[in-house]
Amino acid sequence: MTPFEAQLPVRAQILAVVGCVLLFVFVLELVRRRKLKEEYSILWMAVSLGMAILAAWADLLIGITRMIGAYSANSVIFFFGLLFLMCLVLHLTVRVSGLSEQNKDMAQDLALLRNRLEAKADRRAG
Amino acid sequence: MIGEVVAELRAVRPDLDILVVDDCSPDATGARAREAGARVLRLPVNLGIGGAVQTGFKYAAAREYDAVVQVDGDGQHDPAQLAAILEPLAAGRGDMVIGSRFLERTGYRTPFARRAGMLLFSTVARLAMGQPVADTTSGFRALGRPLFTYLAEYYPTDFPDAETLVLIKRAGFTIHEVSVSMRPRKSGRSSTTTLKSIYYPFKQMLSILVILLRKPPPPPDPARSGNRRAVTEERAS
Q1: Three-class SS state of A10
Q2: Which residues contact A113 (CB under 8 A, 6 or more apart)?
Q3: What is the Cα–Cα distance from B197 to B204, expressed in whole angstroms?
Q4: Interface mutation target, options B20, B29, B42, B151, chain A, most CBs of A under 10 Å
Q5: Which domain holds residue B82?
Q6: Best exposed site among A17, A93, B68, B157 by fewest CB in 10 Å?
């Protein structure tokens, strides 16, 4: 059996699709409870949808494997999964950098304003 | 402790305004400093030394002081030395005057790891700045208004020491270094631990490299004239 002819067992397929549906619902629920911004939810829903399609339609994955000349379908999944996670983490660290800069500026402004208020109150008190 | 430092500064130079930046310290630093007669900026979250120092520059910039002297809150900087770094600033010998521990042999001893780290920076910083600076980590510095106004806007708050110097040189400011003697710190620990002093040079190198790659932000317009006052800033975390 060559790797290209490897078929996903049906049970594994069902399990994968169910997992994707659960992920999709969970993301939706997070958005509903305002724990996750819509901006990110779209990304996660797209990922769960993509994974569901690949799981249900094994030929597509095998086609992609053949197209990019990879040896096995497994490594294609891992490669794209890893690539996706790396991009996501990079994006998040960029966001964190921006947030910490904003946080610093706000803390500084708050300290300056508080000082100004206290000085004003002191002057009024005498 | 901070109270003593403030009291000593006030005794030596009653004409200066003293500002203490309380970087969200858990003890009563802010209250003590206030009792001793300093103005206090209390940060609501801990920003680290860079963010705290920049807060002081923002304060001074908003009030258009003529000069800022940065002093550590642990008493290692002798107020008697204030004149030594303020005079060259007033004489226009630099936009920043650094009170250096190493220009001449003075009474100050530093741990070996710290010294090795500083030697490394000095070398890198010299290459990056085109000017030797013996003490890149000195916390005893005087700054003129154009410079602190600039730093109020752009300050490398993550790793503030040598980078600040590289940044301001790139932006066209001048640095003058004078020798001062320092006392051993009276209380508290250095913010630099052993692990940090290994990690720190790498961070510094990286950030200096990034500053060199980046176009320096333009300096602000030449400062308007104002009344001649000075603010002394301290930091405590």
Answers
A1: helix
A2: none
A3: 11
A4: B42
A5: 2-236
A6: A93
| B44, B59, B62 member nearest A107 (Cβ) | B44
In this prediction the pTM is 0.76
Cβ pair A104:B58 closer than 8 A: no
**Residue B112 maps to which CATH number?**
3.90.550.10
pLDDT tier at B227, thresholds 50, 70, 90: very low
The answer to whether residue B157 neighbours chain A at the CB level (below 8 Å) is yes
Instruction: Please tell me whether the interface predicted TM-score (ipTM) of this complex is above 0.90.
Output: no
A104 vs B39: CB contact, 8 Å cut-off? no
Please provide the DSSP assignment of B69-133 as one string.
EEEETTS-S-GGGHHHHHHHHHTTS-SEEEEESSSS--S----HHHHHHHHHHHHHHHHHHTS--
> Is residue B106 predicted with pLDDT exceeding 70?
no
Burial A7-26 (b: 16+ CB within 10 A, else e): ebeeeebeebbeebeebbee
Residue A59 has phi, psi (to 5 degrees) of -65, -35
Residue with tokens 């250096």: B100
Mutate to test the interface with A, among B55, B58, B207 (most CBs of A within 10 A): B55
Q: How many domains does chain B have?
A: 1
Residue among A18, A20, A42, A19 at smallest CA distance from A30: A42
User: Residues B8-25, buried b or exposed e (16+ Cβ, 10 A)?
Assistant: bbbeebeebbbbbbbbbb
Predicted confidence (pLDDT) per residue in A15-65, tens digit: 989 999 999 999 999 989 989 888 888 888 888 898 888 888 888 888 888
Q: Is B227 exposed, middle or buried (0-12, 13-18, 19+ CB in 10 A)?
A: exposed
